[in-house]
Design a protein that fits this description.
heterotrimer, A alpha/beta (about 325), B mainly alpha (about 300), C alpha/beta (about 325), B: about 300 residues, mainly alpha, MetI-like fold, 13 helices, about 75% helix, C: about 325 residues, alpha/beta, Rossmann fold, 4-stranded antiparallel β-sheet, 10 helices
Chain lengths: ~325, ~300, ~325
């Protein structure tokens, strides 16, 4: 175990099993996050971003969700082997999560101060009442809310302010790892800028490691050190932000993702989106999950799952960059 | 090739017969089919009551055979006046079930329409309907029904009116809240944007989407109304004696609960089976009408 | 712009207002005096944050909501006070596509029923068979496979459902469509597919769009002219490229600065922030509505309404900073 990594996920496989079907949500996912680093986890709806986050916290729906194999090391400790009691001591204390919708993550009948105090007391039962109150006040100030508002209820806050409260709760115990699941998707763009800039400041101040789950490549570019692109439950490309945004070589899906965003600087007549749709997670293609939509798909892509091509920090799971694929591609062109 | 495809379009998109489609989905549910069979057996038995056992036997008193236990002659025993409980059950069921079904449907139709109007049009109409309803509901059901039956006199029609008035209020609130929610959906606005008139919107978009809740509530009410009838009979406001009726039979059997428990058992079982069959049919109908559960 | 080739606008609003009554004497000024012109085949992008009144504007223009004041001219006719019955024939010419692909189509109707509903209402075709075969044509037009005709909406994904909404709107051969955030609920790759579709349809049928969105990159991509709204008022209108190169209103500038760009040279650099949040436009007093958040606020801003004046050809802005020079 490399102690410079706060989180190491290896070969994770998660399914959702109902009476009717088995959804293969995560298929052999590998991920590492260095201490104090921010990882952007990018992908579209159904790629498995949120499932990954919930697996780290062991918060998968208990009836349907199942971790089949793999390992999740948090600060060198195996999370998948921890009992519930130990997990409770970690959740909200050493790993916190911020959800997309601030409207539903706050309890409408408790004041925001009480909700922050609850998070603090849970993990610091010995702390005196006054100290807790002080901590609540400082947590609120931290996210840019005057502390006198701690006696107010969630409905008295706007959407952006609510998300700040949620972040204050998440950061109240100064976690080592913060998982932010689309934290600004529900917010307007000017408010999003405020919240993002606040998250960035706090992260730097406490040296918190962070996973930023988002579908917005702009947010990734502006906040993340490392990037992992997810598709159908696996990471298809990962690397530093420079690798993803500046390098020439990319997974065809990443290329498609970039081409789908209208460019603000250049006027284009038509976008060149990825054709087709996400594969059905109950019936994934046999080879590369992206092969049915891939413009460069070769024979081998439909048969085998591509191994990972590595170039320094840049990893791409695609045959195009591998010897077997390069041959196949040449053959196809001739 | 192309022409061929276009030619087949008309056939391809010819809509499957709606009833056939609903029936196909209905059949998929075991519970619903069992409910339907049960209901057909019960209803068939009640309709054929005259053929099975003459009405005469249900009302003629035979003091020599009071409280007789079930036997070949009296399959369900006799009651306190020596009347054949089997005959009473069959003939009484006709009244009970027809009142219950008619009262349920009339209350469902009146209540749902009022609720739909209140929810869809809102504003003053809504206020008028809902405030009148509040006044209506501030009088206890039983008191209200008693007053109606007392004023009009106990008879089949008057009982029907009283029960309808007692039960329609359930639907108004239920349907109103459904419609309020549905009327806000974008597809209703989309229908407006296409130039649809209110009638079309209500018939084609609102009702089909609200129907599930109405059906379930309706079927649950059938059983409640049968029991409610028995309360009225118990208070002497049901069908005038000696005409049999399930509720009345239950009320009369109460006296003999220890000595002749079968008197209570058979009408209770009849009510339970009837109610259960209707509930099962209702569940099946709701699912059959919902395209989400298709396939 | 198209202004040269078409002398008369297809749609024009003058001082259009829509207020919602909250309580007695308390009104929400959702749309508060909007002037706009839309020429055939052109796209007007309306952009703003939630609560700025852009959706209300779209619905008021096609009279799904009754305007409180001002006027709407369609093809030169004043339709402001048209009744529902008078509007019905006009529905064939003006349509709307909704944001939410889940709530905008009836879950109990099959795809073909949804698409053919409008044609039945307007008795466009003589027979049922003809109506259905026209609906199938519409499906092909928007790239929906024929085999979905008898499917129900819940069997399709968001992108395809949105195409049902587009096919429905097109089924009456309209000249003008209000697109109310038609791609906001979709994933980026599907969003791009649908944007291309909307642009192709516009070319083929010379449709005019009012394209309402909060997404500036989308609005730039699709619009000829962009209108920026803030709390019910239009603060700036300009040709699409001009607005992005030379935004004049401080709010427009703030909006543009706040978009996270997929460019890592900007990483961890300070965002250009504007403080504060959007309030509700309830019982508005005179004065610029952006004044409380504006970094360049002056005394006059909270006293008078800034006039909406032309700063450059086709570029109009309501700000004292620009207009007093």
């Amino acid at each position: 175990m490399n102690t410079a990594n706060i989180l190491e996920i290896k070969d994770l496989k998660v399914i959702y099993k109902t009476d009717l079907e088995v959804v293969e949500a995560i298929n052999g996912l590998n991920l590492t996050l260095g201490k104090g680093k921010t990882l952007g986890l990018v992908g579209e709806t159904g790629a498995g971003k949120t499932t990954t986050a919930l697996s780290i916290l062991k918060l998968l729906p208990s009836v349907t969700g199942k971790i089949l194999n793999g390992s999740i090391l948090f600060d060198g400790e195996e999370i998948l082997k921890m009992d519930e009691k130990k997990m409770q001591a970690i959740r909200g204390n050493r790993i916190s999560m911020v959800f997309q919708d601030p409207m539903t993550s706050l309890n409408p009948v408790l004041t925001v101060g009480d909700q922050i105090a609850e998070a603090i007391q849970l993990h610091n039962p010995e702390m005196s009442k006054e100290d807790v109150q002080k901590k609540v006040a400082s947590s609120l100030e931290l996210v840019g809310i005057p502390s006198w508002r701690s006696v107010e209820y969630p409905h008295q806050f706007s959407g952006g302010m609510k998300q700040r409260v949620v972040i204050a709760i998440a950061l109240a115990c100064e976690p080592e790892l913060l998982i932010a699941d689309e934290p600004t998707t529900a917010l307007d763009v000017t408010i999003q800028a405020q919240v993002l800039s606040m998250i960035r400041d706090l992260r730097d101040r406490f040296n918190t490691s962070m996973i930023m789950i988002t579908h917005d490549l702009g947010i990734v570019a502006q906040t993340c050190d490392d990037v992992a692109v997810m598709y159908a439950g696996t990471i298809i490309e990962s690397g530093t932000a420079e690798d993803i945004f500046l390098n020439k070589d990319h997974h065809p899906y990443t290329v498609g993702l970039f081409n789908s965003i209208p460019n603000l600087d250049v006027k284009t007549d038509r976008l060149s989106p990825i054709e087709g749709l996400m594969p059905d997670p109950t019936d994934l293609p046999k080879g590369c999950a992206f092969s049915p939509r891939c413009p460069h798909a070769m024979e081998i892509c439909h048969q085998k799952r591509p191994p990972v091509y590595t170039n320094n920090t840049h990893n791409i799971a695609c045959f195009l960059f591998l010897p077997e694929g390069k041959q196949g591609n040449k053959g196809g062109e001739e | 090739m192309k022409n061929n495809e276009n030619g087949s379009d008309a056939i391809l998109y010819k809509k499957e017969n709606q009833f056939k489609e609903i029936w196909r989905r209905f059949r998929k549910s075991k519970g619903a089919v069992i409910g339907l069979i049960l209901f057909i057996v019960i209803a068939g038995g009640l309709l054929a009551a005259d053929l099975i056992v003459p009405y005469e036997k249900a009302v003629s008193q035979n003091f020599g055979a009071r409280l007789a236990p079930p036997s070949m002659e009296y399959p369900f025993g006799t009651d306190g006046y020596g009347r054949d409980a089997f005959a009473r059950l069959l003939h009484g069921g006709r009244t009970s079930l027809s009142i219950a079904l008619l009262a349920t449907f009339s209350s469902a139709i009146i209540g749902s329409s009022l609720g739909a109007i209140a929810g869809f049009f809102g504003g003053k109409v809504d206020n008028l309907i809902m405030r009148s309803l509040d006044i209506f509901m501030s009088v206890p059901d039983i008191l209200f029904t008693m007053a109606v039956v007392y004023a009009l006199g106990p008879s089949f029609t008057n009982l029907l009116i009283a029960l309808t008035l007692a039960y329609f209020t359930n639907y108004v609130r239920l349907v109103r809240s459904q419609v309020l929610n549905l009327a806000e959906q974008d597809y209703v606005e989309a229908a407006r944007a296409g130039g649809a008139k209110n009638a079309r919107i209500i018939i084609s978009h609102i009702i089909p989407n609200a129907i599930g809740v109405i059906i379930v509530n309706t079927t649950l009410n059938v059983a409640k109304i049968i029991l409610y009838e028995s309360t009225l009979s118990f208070l002497g406001l049901g069908m005038p004696p000696p005409h049999p009726e399930w509720g009345l039979m239950l009320a009369e059997a109460r006296e003999f609960m220890r000595t002749a428990p079968w008197l209570m058992f058979f009408p209770s079982a009849a009510i339970v089976f009837t109610a259960a069959s209707i509930n099962l049919i209702g569940d099946g109908m709701r699912d059959a009408l919902d395209p989400h559960l298709k396939s | 712009m198209n202004t040269a080739t078409h002398s008369k606008p297809l749609l024009e609003t003058k001082g259009l207002k829509k207020y919602f009554k909250i309580r007695k004497n308390v009104n929400l000024h959702a749309v508060d005096g909007i002037d706009l012109e839309l020429y055939p085949g052109e796209t007007l992008g309306v952009v703003g944050e939630s609560g700025c009144g852009k959706s209300t504007l779209g619905r008021t223009i096609i009279k799904l909501l009754e305007p409180t004041g001002g006027s709407i001219l369609f093809n030169g006719k004043d339709i402001t006070n048209y009744s529902v019955n008078q509007m019905r024939p006009l529905r064939r010419e003006m349509q709307i596509i909704f944001q939410d692909p889940y709530s905008s189509i009836d879950p109990r109707k099959s795809v073909i029923e949804i698409i053919s509903e409008y044609s039945f209402i307007h008795k466009m075709y003589s027979s049922k068979a003809q109506t259905f075969s026209k609906a199938v044509e519409m499906m092909e037009l928007v790239g929906l496979a024929k085999r979905y005709a008898n499917s129900y909406p819940h069997e399709l994904d968001g992108g395809r459902r949105q195409r049902i909404g587009i096919a429905r709107a097109l089924s009456l051969n309209p000249k003008f469509i209000v697109c109310d955030e038609p791609v906001s609920a979709l994933d980026v790759s599907v969003q791009a597919q649908n944007l291309n579709l909307l642009m192709d349809l516009q070319d083929n049928f010379s449709l005019a769009y009012i394209f309402i969105t909060h997404d500036l990159s989308v609005v730039k991509h699709i619009s000829d002219i962009i209108m920026v709204m803030y709390l019910g008022k239009c603060v700036e209108t300009a040709p699409s490229d001009e607005l992005f190169i030379n935004p004049l209103h401080p709010y427009t500038q703030a909006l543009l600065a706040a978009i996270p760009k997929p460019d890592i040279t900007m990483r961890n650099k300070e965002f250009q922030l504007i403080e504060g949040e959007v309030t509700s436009p309830i019982n508005m007093k005179p004065g610029c509505r952006f004044a409380s958040r504006c970094p360049h606020v002056m005394d006059i801003c909270s006293q008078e309404d800034p006039e909406f004046l032309e700063a450059a050809p086709g570029h109009r802005v309501a700000c004292f900073l620009v207009n007093d020079k």
